[in-house]
């Protein structure tokens, strides 16, 4: 067993040549806002990874996708973060297509054939705001919907072809109902503004996307059945399970990059190298086990995905601290890679839903109550 061999083999199997292309560039180049990582991902056919084979895509399952994201995270954390947001959006469209005869199937075919990138406009990055709370204001006249507002940060802001966003529309009885809108990036009224000031994960293109009275065709609006207390319908549940596992895998990949450097350094004590590898491998094995489950995805699966994610955060914190100290001051001084990876891998804690906000909800869920996302 060679460290990261399984994940890199999975990446090579579905996106041949991508790992080799990424490995040819310095980490700093891959992580820059205009770096080569996203272009290499698109060229390799990455946007079609989760698109079902009947629509021209790779049709990768969740287990394969987690391995791919870990491999990407070990080469470029920014690429893993950005592509997870794309896959999350694609997953929602796939689930909608399975229960609809609308435009979703045509959209999936277009994603695969034209290698389209989808950005996610769901709530993220705002302390105290629930993940399901819409950022955008919707104005409805008959079948027409106009959207205004902004999403910041929004990964893939400058490379996206479509923005997926949560909006509130009047339900059958007049009460607000959560819906998902698919908005072309070149729609009149769409613009992008600089937002991300940190050099960490700058390659994910997480800037501000602004919508000013943007019209969305009715066939590009998918209604859900999310209740006002935050309970999730099946489409949302599946999407968030994929999001949590893929994002966790990507950040475990970033931590694995530190472990890989430690394993290659014979001057580091064997016990430290083994302990670091064990911690990151153990966390990823939990992700793999859930991803490989044959049980139907439901609220229990989402609860387990959150537990995997929060446990991985603890493992990443331990691994990054141990590996940075073990590699020593000269490794830290001689290259920016160590400091960069140490910061990048810890950013998993910033993605919603935060552990603090979900603590009471997890306790309630483990006592038998329905899971609610905040």
Automatic annotation (TrEMBL):
Cited Gene3D superfamilies? Acyl-CoA dehydrogenase/oxidase, N-terminal domain, Butyryl-CoA Dehydrogenase, subunit A, domain 2
Query: By its UniProt entry, which InterPro entries does this protein fall under?
Result: Acyl-CoA_Oxase/DH_mid-dom_sf (IPR046373), AcylCo_DH-like_C (IPR036250), AcylCoA_DH/ox_N_sf (IPR037069), AcylCoA_DH/oxidase_NM_dom_sf (IPR009100)
Entry keyword Glycoprotein: no
Which keywords appear in this protein's UniProt record, sorted alphabetically?
Answer: FAD, Flavoprotein, Oxidoreductase
Coiled-coil parts of chain:
none
Look up keyword Flavoprotein and say if it applies.
yes
Under what name is this protein listed?
Acyl-CoA/acyl-ACP dehydrogenase
Q: Which organism is it from?
A: Streptomyces coffeae
Taxonomic lineage of the native organism:
Bacteria, Bacillati, Actinomycetota, Actinomycetes, Kitasatosporales
